[in-house]
Amino acid sequence: MALIGTASVEALQPEALARGEADRPHSAVVRFGPDKPLSLDAGGVLTPFQIAYQTYGTLNAARSNAILLCHALSGDQHAANVHPVTGKPGWWETLVGPGKPIDTDRFFVICSNVLGGCMGTTGPSSADGKGKIYGLDLPVVTIGDMVRAQAMLIDHLGIEKLLAVVGGSMGGMQVLQWAASYPDRVFAAMPIATAARHSAQNIAFHEVGRQAIMADPDWRGGAYLAESTSPRRGLAVARMAAHITYMSDSSLHRKFGRRLQDREGRTFSFDADFQVESYLRHQGEAFVDRFDANSYLYVTRAMDYFDLAADYGGVLAKAFRGTATRFCLVSFTTDWLFPTADSRAVVHALNAAGASVSFAEIESDKGHDAFLLEEPEFFAITRGFLDAAARTVGVP
Amino acid sequence: MALTERGASDLTMREAARAESGKRVDLLLLAEMVAPGSRVLDVGCGDGELLELLARTRGCDARGIELSREGVNASVARGLAVIQGDADVDLGDYPDDAFDYVILSQTIQATRRPKWVLEQMLRVGRRAIVSFPNFGFWRMRLDLVMNGRMPRTENLPYSWHDTPNIHFCTIRDFVELAGEVGAKIERAAALDASGHSVRFKMPWWVWNLLGEQAIFLLTRKG
Questions:
Q1: Whose CB has fewer CB within 10 Å in chain B, the N or C terminal residue?
Q2: How far apart are CA A144 and CA A306, in angstroms?
Q3: Can you tell me whether residue A116 is helix, strand or coil?
């Protein structure tokens, strides 16, 4: 296994592939010109900009069967198809597909790359209107900006009202933002393993990741693309630190314990003696091949800034006042990044707002990652909730 | 009568009544107490059977709290809004007057703080409906007197050391508790062992003897 920092020629190939995705992605793209600027929470507008997205299934004649999936920090629009850079299955392929809980035989499923991302939607690795790569000249974006951009995509697709908006982690933040900003356009909302505000602990972890990137000399003050370098070590370390937060103590123990990696005993060195070290290094390396370091800065920042209640006078219930959207929240028992208490706080606010809300805490030892894995009870509740929503709206 | 004494193929009267209409008699009686189109919270809603009945036949905006994940899953699959939670804790999270009715069906005996739960129900809802197994029922008394052991019935088959039912009460006990929390008894009904409602007016002590289950509709006093 290659050690971090010694980027071989082979390793650079997928990275080059990933860079190509920024402007010419293997996805449908909608370009919004100067006539359709995106207003930003930071002030000012972003124009021109583009959104890359995937769709699965067919939009019905009544345009009533559309489900928007919102991806997490390290995800992208390739939810249920082979990833064009990694060649791996989509990140939610177990949940989304024909006959699956998010059934593409019934529903028209949309997933777009977030604003600030690196897979074809405008982000720091995209070229600005004059052909120059943004880098840190891209304004800092928020979850609110991401959702406003998605709403423009949904307009473009001619969909007035979404049957459901579904997402986990940062995707769940977008779901909550959708429900707050566009209550009349969301029939059902499913925020999974998420929170209405990013906690101090989570901001702290993100700051570690960002500092790792910015401490890499190859980051070049954010101008690494123009200078043909790549802060691989920094981004890999950021991913390694973050990856620990996605797992639980028990799942790390079950997967690796204290087992050694391909060796009989300790080497009395700083090589990756332990399987868990080797695993993390691999996770870091693999991530660098498909993700842009500046995107990591922007997207983590968007999560840090997320505090839905703050936009409504500090009272979360006010974000949902009078809403007709039906909600179903899910948390996982060993998720310490977005613990059940975060979901319960949202449930509490929704109750105070008189909203229709369901909530279940799913037993799992897989930590935050559980929302991306096959958890039968989570799948059952997703299927049941969406099925009931479809029945109510009259989607066959 | 202990469950173990009953043949596996025997049907109790209640089960027979259920088989006929497809619904439990106590649930039908309970649903009758709810005004059409009202907002209802069912505390300990199980798989959502009562909520669905209320939504379908009474046009209610029906919500629930349920401790078991299986119950929540089943309820959500029925299209109901149900929160996984514990009545002993989570009722406190609801705002005042959020519901027209708060229902506690066959659950009060399993709560840790029955009095607190009842107080919360009357805070969150303008009315509370409580149904519970009556420990003053004559068979219970007979079982205890004759066998000298904690009664077990077909509806309450658990042994004393392994039961979720930690706070049994009789109809008289409940009437007293209702008074303590300042509730007014609007309506009351008792079901006999065959699941039929004890129709005619009787003093509490008769109901306490003949009623296997009781249903109370309470409102806040004043």
A1: C
A2: 8
A3: coil
Could you say which of B61, B81, B95 has the minimum Cβ distance to residue A358?
A: B81
Q: What are A64-101's pLDDT values in tens digits?
A: 999 999 999 999 999 999 999 999 999 999 999 999 99
Tokens standing for residue A169? 């982690």
Q: What residue has token string 């079950």?
A: A254
User: Please, are residues B87 and B111 in contact by the beta-carbon 8 Å criterion?
Assistant: yes
CA distances from A91 to A70, A165, A281, A285, A352 (A): 12, 17, 20, 18, 34
Among residues A166, A52, A61, A160, which one has the least CA distance to residue A103?
A166
Question: Could you tell me which of B213, B219, B174, B178 has the C-alpha nearest to residue B192?
Answer: B213
* Joined tokens for residue A144: 């609110």
Any idea how long chain A is?
Answer: 396
Catalytic residue IDs of A: 169, 335, 368
Cα distance between residue A58 and residue A96, in whole Å? 14
- A362/B69 touch (CB, cutoff 8 Å), yes or no: yes
Secondary structure class of A266 (helix, strand, coil)? coil
Which of A321, A328, A358 to probe the B interface (max B CBs under 10 A)? Answer: A358
3-state DSSP helix/strand/coil percent for chain A, to nearest 5?
A: 40, 15, 40
Candidates B137, B84, B83, B81; CA nearest to B109 is B137
Residues of A in contact with B94 (CB under 8 A): 351-352
Residue with tokens 């629009």, as numbered in its chain: A77
Round to whole Å and give the CA distance between A230 and A278. Answer: 22
**Check whether domain B3-7+34-220 has CATH 3.30.70.1560, yes or no:** no
Q: In the predicted model, what is the mean pLDDT of chain B?
A: 84
B105, B26 Cβ separation under 8 angstroms: yes
Q: Rounded CA gap, B110 and A290, in Å?
A: 53
Please compute the mean of the pLDDT values over residues A288-302 and round it to a whole number: 97
- A56, A59, A121, A64: which is closest to A95 by C-alpha? A56
Q: How far is CA B173 from CA A220, B184, B190, B205, in A?
A: 77, 15, 14, 11
Two tokens at A277? 């070290």
Do the beta carbons of residue B153 and residue B140 sit within 8 Å?
A: yes
Question: What are the structural domain ranges in chain B?
Answer: 3-7+34-220
Q: Which residue has the tokens 């004890």?
A: B198
Which residue type, as a one-letter code, is found at position A257? G
Q: How many Cβ atoms sit within 10 Å of the Cβ of residue B89? A: 12
d(CA B91, CA A375): 29
Instruction: Provide the ipTM.
Output: 0.83
Element (H, E) at B177: helix B171-180
Does residue B97 belong to the interface with chain A, where contact is any CB pair within 8 Å? no
Nearest to A332 by CA among A197, A196, A169: A169
Q: How far, in Å, CA of B19 to CA of B124, rounded?
A: 35
Taking CB atoms within 8 Å and a gap of at least 24, the contacts of B16-20 are B17/B194, B17/B195, B18/B195
Q: Which helix (H) or strand (E) holds B100?
A: strand B99-105
Calpha distance A353→B93 (Å, rounded): 12
Rounded CA-CA distance B48/B67 in Å is 12
| Topology, domain A9-393 | Rossmann fold (3.40.50)
- Whether the CB of A360 is below 8 Å from some CB of chain B: the reply is yes
Neighbours of A294 (CB within 10 A): 26
Which of the four pLDDT bands, split at 50, 70 and 90, describes residue B212?
A: confident
